[in-house]
């Protein structure tokens, strides 16, 4: 799951959301530099990632991308899941998604002082270019693919991955549909357990 999904699966808890979104930028014992609730958000992120990687629908989705991006298939599937989530009217209306994205940026802005440097430097671009909401558009997803390829060590470009996405759109949508209700239930259970610890 990518940024939108991790924000959404924080269930409107600001500190959990912060931890959930910064987790990939927090290594080792750095986790303990944060408040208990942010630490729980970091833990929730990692539990969601483990669940996602182990799910059969994710394995199926990765097979579409693996011939063109190899071991980066999972990262591209994460972005694809955010695309379908951003368009999922069972989860939220289009206006509701707009409000949710604005609220997420506000929470991140409010916590700027504790964000890891690399993540903090990215937040102004995320907000000004409205990454979270723009996942719903093909252009937004294509830009996210380009960003992935730019950061990847062994990828020259994302054109082939984007072609796979276009050609396999319905099949990838089916993977998302088979997956998301289960990860949401899992994440909500984990969330409640963390709050009660």
List the helices and strands and how they pair.
Elements: H1 3-8, H2 14-22, H3 36-54, H4 56-69, H5 73-86, H6 94-110, H7 117-128, H8 131-134, H9 138-151, H10 159-167, H11 169-195
Describe the 3D structure.
It comes from Filimonas effusa. It holds the Pfam family ACP_PD. Keywords: Hydrolase, Lipid biosynthesis, Lipid metabolism. This is DUF479 domain-containing protein. One of its GO terms (molecular function) is [acyl-carrier-protein] phosphodiesterase activity. This protein is mainly alpha-helical and 197 residues long. It has one domain (3-195). It contains 11 helices and no strands. Helix 4 (56-69) packs across helix 5, helix 4 packs across helix 10 and helix 5 (73-86) crosses helix 11. The radius of gyration is 16 Å and the shape is globular.
Terminal Cα span: 25 Å
Beta-strand content estimate: under 5%
- Total DSSP E strands: 0
- Give the overall shape: globular
Kindly name the structural category.
mainly alpha
Low-confidence stretches: none
The portion of residues assigned to helices is over 70%
Radius of gyration: 16 Å
Topology order in helix (H) and strand (E) letters = HHHHHHHHHHH
Number of helices: 11
Number of domains: 1
Give the biggest beta sheet: none
Mean pLDDT: 94
């Amino acid at each position: 799951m990518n940024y939108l999904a991790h924000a959404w699966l924080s269930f409107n808890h600001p500190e959990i959301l912060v931890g959930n979104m910064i987790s990939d930028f927090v290594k080792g014992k750095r986790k303990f530099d944060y408040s208990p609730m942010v630490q729980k958000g970091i833990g929730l992120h990692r539990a969601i990632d483990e669940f996602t990687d182990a799910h059969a629908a994710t394995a199926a989705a990765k097979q579409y991308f693996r011939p063109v991006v190899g071991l980066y298939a999972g990262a591209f599937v994460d972005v694809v899941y955010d695309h379908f989530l951003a368009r999922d009217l069972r989860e939220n209306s289009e206006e509701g998604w707009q409000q949710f994205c604005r609220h997420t940026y506000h929470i991140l802005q409010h916590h700027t002082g504790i964000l890891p440097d690399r993540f903090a430097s990215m937040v102004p671009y995320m907000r000004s270019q409205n990454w979270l909401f723009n996942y719903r558009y093909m252009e937004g997803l294509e830009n996210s693919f380009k960003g992935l390829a730019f950061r990847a060590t062994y990828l020259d470009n994302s054109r082939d991955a984007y072609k796979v996405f276009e050609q396999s759109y319905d099949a990838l949508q089916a993977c998302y549909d088979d997956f998301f209700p289960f990860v949401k239930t899992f994440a909500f259970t984990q969330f409640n357990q963390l709050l009660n610890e």
